Amino acid sequence: MLKYSIRRLLGMIPMLILISIVVFSLAKLMPGDSLSGEIDPLNTNPEYIAEMREKLGYNDPLPVQYFNWITGFVQGDFGKSTRFKIPVFDLIMEKIPNTLFLGITALVITYIMAFIMGMYSGRRPYTLGDNAIAGFNYIMLAIPSFVAAVFAIYFFAFQLNWFPFAGSVDILAEQGSFEYYLSRMHHVLLPALVLGAMSTASYTQFLRNDIIENSRKDFVRTARAKGTPIKKIYNVHILRNSIIPLVTFLGFDFAALIGGAIITETIFTYPGIGQLFLQSVTTRDYPTLMALTMLLSFLTLLGNLIADILYGVVDPRIRLD
C-alpha cells in the first residue's frame, strides 16, 4: 500500500507540470492582463501602468514568465493578488476554511441522504416509496444547481426565514464563542443542503441497484436457508458489499464538491475559494486564478489516489501493488 501510494504521488508530478503549462497558457491567452482594469484615463497615469507591467514581468518572454511563476509556485510563493493587494497564499488560507467546512458538511449530508434512501429503495424495490425516491432523484439530476440555490434562498430564507441568505457568520457574533460556531453552522446549512442534495441522486441509485443485485446472489440464498434474520442479511451481508462503491467515490466527491461550490458560494455570497475563483476571473486577477486552478487540479488528482486506496481497504480482494 505504501509503495503504491508513493508511486502514485510521484506519478502526479509530470501531470501537475502539464497542468501548470495549460493553466499558464490559458491565462496568457485571455484578453488583457490584471492591470487592464486599472487603466482609467482620468485617474491613472499610463506611465505608471507601463512601469508596473515591466516590474511584474509582463513584458518578459512567455517561457521566462512561466519559469518565474512555476519556480515561485513550487517554493510556496503564489504571487500577489492584483485585486486584494495581498499575497495569494494568504488570501487562499483566509478563504479555504469556509470552503472546507461547506464541502465536508455537504458531503455528510450527501452520504446520509444517499444511505437512507438507497437502503430503503434497495430493500423495497418497485414500491411507491421507491418510485417516490426515484422521482426525487430525477428532479435533482434535472435541476441546475444555481436554479435550486435561488429557489432555496427564496423559500427558506425569504419566505420561511429559517436560514440566512448570505455570509458565513453573523458579524455581531464574538469569534471563538459558542454563538460564533452556532452562527457558522446556521449559515452553512442552506448552501450545504443544496450542494449535498444535488449530489445525492447518483449515489442513491448506485446503492439501490447494488443492494438489489447482491440480494439475488448465492451467499444471500445460503444465509436465508440457514435461517439468518432478514434484517441481519441486509444490514451485514448485503450492505457490506453494496457500500463499496460509495466508499470508493469518497475521494472523487471531495474534489467535486469543492469545484461545485463555485456556483453555490457565489449565489449564497458565501466567502470561500469558489466565490474567490469567480471573482478572480471577472477581475482578471491571474495570480489568484492560476493558483486556485492548480489547487483544484491537485485536489482532483489526490481524490483519485484516495479513491483507489479506499477501494483496496474496503475490498480485501483488491491488492494495490
CATH class of the largest domain: Mainly Alpha
CATH topology of the largest domain: MetI-like fold
Distance between the termini: 7 Å
**Which percent bin holds the helix content?**
over 70%
- Estimate the strand proportion: under 5%
What is the radius of gyration?
24 Å
User: Can you tell me the number of structural domains?
Assistant: 2
| Helix segment tally | 14
Shape: globular
Low-confidence runs: none
- Total strands: the figure is 0
Class computed from helices, strands and strand pairing: mainly alpha
Largest sheet: none
Supply the CATH architecture of the largest domain: Orthogonal Bundle
One letter per element, helices H and strands E, the order comes to HHHHHHHHHHHHHH
Average pLDDT over all residues: 80
Describe the protein's architecture and organization.
- The chain is mostly helical and 321 residues long.
- It has helices at 2-29, 46-56, 62-74, 88-123, 128-142, 145-159, 178-198, 200-214, 218-225, 230-242, 244-248, 250-267, 273-282, 286-314.
- The longest helix has 36 residues, at 88-123.
- The mean pLDDT is 80.
Describe the structure concisely for a colleague.
With 321 residues, the protein is an all-alpha fold. It has helices at residues 2-29, 46-56, 62-74, 88-123, 128-142, 145-159, 178-198, 200-214, 218-225, 230-242, 244-248, 250-267, 273-282, 286-314.
